[in-house]
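Pasting as-is:
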Amino acid sequence: MAAAVTLVQRGVAVSVFEAGAVAGGRARRIPVASAGQATELDNGQHILVGAYTELLRLMGEVGVPRDALLRIPLEIRYVRGFHLRKAKLPPPLDLAGGLLAARGIPLSDKLGAIRFMLRMKRLGFRLEDDIEVDELLRRQRQDGRIGHYLWRPLCVSALNTPPADASANAFLAALRDTLMSEPAASDLLLPRVDLSKLFPEPAVEFVRRHGAEVRLKESIQDLRKLKSDFSSIIVAVGPHQLKSVLPDLALDYTYQPIHTCYLQYAPGVKLPFPMLGFADGLVQWAFDRGALTGEHGLLAVVISAQGDHQQLTQDELADACHRELAAENIVGDKPLWTRVIAEKRATVTCGPRIKRPAAETQFPGVFLAGDYTDSEYPPTLEAAVRSGVRAATMALKS
């Protein structure tokens, strides 16, 4: 949709073929049945940050209202043990002040984290030889409590890859663009509408108003048939789907899942903060959908990347999440209903030696887009949007 918006703004005739019933790929609303009733849930609890400049720009251009996002200046709050809030100072003093005032870590960790960020800044937030994030933290002596509460959770959240396997350079690129950029870049942007309304649906309406066609529930198996009707083709599919449409470009990736567990409690149940971290169990982050979307009593629990939880059934996973919430006195009675949504191939494993295909292919007029095609950025919503804009720009030049 980012590619389509970019093209119709230049007056190009566009046709979008979407295999699903709803646009949006891995960030969309899906219908589910819960407690015998039909309802709709996001297929994952995504969040944005202020550094997502391309996505925010396109959201504005297709008419997404500003209040569709709850903007919170960087604040990472755990249910217990750690609390970091960026100071109201000019950068980089805002981060340094926040670290010095953080609760739950010793002073030595605070000072070490400041020195770490300054060293990475001198290196341009890029290592000559990429390594795993765990190795980076070990070398930089960031593997104590600061690593437990800050760096490792940020790595898993941004790269959706365990720190033992994750690319240090992709992680550093995320730190550069959020923590060490303009003050607003590190803001947390929490969706207050479902993911389809956040961009895909307004984008569909936008391109249709500009004369484009969007064909839902229509998959493409043979690009050769399209080439006779279109001058350029942008292939924006998951990498595992390249084998069917562009087998010559297919790469053997490993994939990382994201599990989102929705637990519906009584309407009075809520979190002390819209986004709350958990550091010592299965749950990584919990979101208060009542505070965000008005779905009172509904909590969304996120578990990113691979782990032992993949061996649990959906009912076992939901029960485990409930027990962790109950252990922190956040909830009491069991939920009224639960639903686990597992995106088994949410992203490619963002490791140090990952191969990134170029947007321009060896086939004239065929271009690739997808969050896995960015040369340095983690596989995020921003990377997906950037790739669409990049592929559209190349198609225009060709």
